[in-house]
């Protein structure tokens, strides 16, 4: 029996709205609040699998005791488990060089206990990376009470994590030496050596409905990892979880978020600690900044594939060499200046501008007031952490300030939230080209061209009221010819 629902009409269906509200309430996944077509596609797969007639029938089933297993399957359908070993290695630099030495020789020394929680751990790569780092870089911990807890709402993810067996994709950017040192291969899978999994345990936990303080050991956690999880929640839930994490940490403990959650203003009462792609927040401590450095010989041997530092930070010089237009419609400053525009001093009226106004952010940027535009944009994103246009504008502003790597990270966030954002692919390609990453830049340009084919040539692009599909297509075709 096949369901009678249609993806095209789902958003107008009252039962679809009820089902959507139920799912968002149960999971807190505000990420899906404006993605009806994607939700409808996922719902339809579950309706067909369970042979339910329509959304109302499916929701009635979910709310019964008999629907318990299906609730788990729906969660598996909705949650995203993108992770790999030593992802964002700068965070692990900071953990090894700064955070752990401070804890081990400070607040943890007397009790000789270290407790770390990975909230939203997915399939376990993050927690096992921490275990490897701890045991290889801090041998004195062998006599300590070491507890590494991983939790997730997705039971299937946790079952995979407990197996501690992974395919090659989980080790992207890592060397064969690393695999041989910490894993044994069986067919197409690599199994973590038992010595690195013995201190790791997993539990099902729903950050929205389950008590967070009950997860903490006596005295609290020393470190909580919650990377690329909070971006899926609304602002109210975000702030509630930040407060709960604060209470679950011991004094001097650390909260480590992902690059998408890099916003000190939204993490009070924590104190921020900044890295290039990492935000660390410390309980009851003053602000302190530090830089990451490369791993030592006894740490995981990374193969270097990081984006190199650009030879020139003048974005438009690269554009001119490719024969691009001198000025891009919509946000002219981002391509038209040969040097980042001079930053102005904020006036009294500017300091009272409403941060929610994207139009104000854009006007400030176009007039060369980049510091003010960036500040307002970041305030806006604190209030609207899932706003795609906000991250896109931030990327353009950062690039105009000569911060190419940070701009690239902001564009990654845009594409994480909307992988079909054409101008984000386009600007990503330009930045990668500027950074000397020609091959990856070509891929970004191909992505943009492929998406352009889906729209009428006279239509305007998202986040631009002047760029048409035809205009950008002409620029991209010229660009491809120049870098061929």
CATH topology of the largest domain: Rossmann fold
**Widest β-sheet, arrangement of strands:** 6-2-1-7-8-10-9
| Number of H- or I-type helical stretches | 18
Shape estimate: globular
Strand content: 5-15%
What's the overall average pLDDT, rounded?
A: 78
Tell me the total number of β-strands: 10
As residue ranges, the low-confidence spans are: 285-355
CATH homologous superfamily title of the largest domain: Vaccinia Virus protein VP39
Over the alpha carbons, how many angstroms does the gyration radius reach?
Answer: 24 Å
Helix content: 40-55%
CATH class of the largest domain: Alpha Beta
Order of helices and strands: HHHHHEHEHEHEEEEHEEEHHHHHHHHH
CA(first)-CA(last) distance: 52 Å
Integer tally of domains: 3
Major sheet: size, sense and barrel closure? Answer: 7 strands, mixed
Description:
The structure is a single chain. The chain contains 18 helices and ten strands. With 484 residues, the protein is α/β, with parallel strands linked by helices. It folds into three domains: 14-78, no CATH class; 89-283, 3-Layer(aba) Sandwich (Rossmann fold), CATH 3.40.50.150; 358-483, Alpha Horseshoe (Serine Threonine Protein Phosphatase 5, Tetratricopeptide repeat). The chain has a seven-stranded mixed beta sheet with strand order 6-2-1-7-8-10-9. The chain has a three-stranded antiparallel beta sheet with strand order 3-5-4. It is globular.
